[in-house]
Specification:
Length: 237
């Protein structure tokens, strides 16, 4: 697929791991056109992990985690979302408002990016959405490990839990290979891309893709959060 886009395309990819045969076609198309503002309203004055971010390229992603570094606050999202459109908005208090600009992106090879928040009238708490959308306080970050209990929140499918199945997974996107990912047995839906994955109050990663869906079941792939924090010199807020 060409990196020059004349219209917002949907995303799909195929996967390969060291221990399993390559999957043919992944059914989740996780970067989708932004819905109306009324469909994704955040809590008044606040933007937290699990809320939607909309970019100037006409795309939307789920915000993973908020973080701080070098005197600024940032939102962590997938790189393949961060590199399409440079300015970002969110639904805060029932209105669509500008919140920041892309500060960095890595894709392929990795799949992460950061948005530097510039709207000081919005609060960016160190929380993510959990069961029923209730806030979960995130107090640190941990590496994934097989068998670890894991939950994630996507702005389309909501809150789901399961376990980590594998680490050091490789994904083959049309644009190139992304390695060092981990996989869970938790389902995702189109539009969940970027959503926070956490174990208790600890951040583990962000959603970058999946196979299947939440009606028939599936698995989800994530970029580990500790690598993102180290690359950009950030601390979870």
């Amino acid at each position: 697929m060409s990196r020059r886009r004349t219209a917002p395309p949907l995303r799909t990819f195929a996967t390969a791991t060291a221990t399993a045969a390559a999957l043919a076609l992944l059914g989740a198309l996780l970067t989708v056109l932004a819905p109306p503002a009324s469909a994704q309203a955040a809590a008044a004055g606040e933007l937290r992990g699990g809320d939607a971010l909309y970019n100037s390229g006409g795309y939307s992603c789920t915000l993973g985690f908020n973080a701080v570094g070098s005197g600024a606050t940032y939102g962590i999202i997938p790189g393949h979302c961060a590199d399409v459109g440079s300015s970002w908005s969110a639904d805060v208090g029932g209105s669509r408002v500008n919140v920041g600009t892309t500060s960095g992106a890595s894709f392929p090879g990795n799949d992460y990016g950061v948005v530097r928040y510039t709207n000081t009238s919005v609060s960016y708490p160190g929380e993510v959405k959990g069961s029923g959308g209730a806030p979960v306080d995130i107090t640190g970050a941990v590496d994934p490990s097989p068998g670890m209990a894991l939950c994630h929140y996507g702005r389309v499918s909501g809150y789901h839990c399961g376990t980590v199945q594998a680490v050091n997974v490789t994904v083959n996107f049309p644009e190139g290979v992304v390695s060092g990912l981990f996989r869970s047995n938790i389902c995702s839906e189109p539009g969940d891309n970027g959503g926070p994955a956490f174990s208790g109050g600890k951040a583990v990663g962000i959603i970058i893709g999946s196979t299947g869906n939440c009606s028939t079941g599936g698995v989800t792939y994530y970029q580990p959060i500790k690598e993102i924090l180290a690359v950009y010199g950030l601390t979870l807020s």
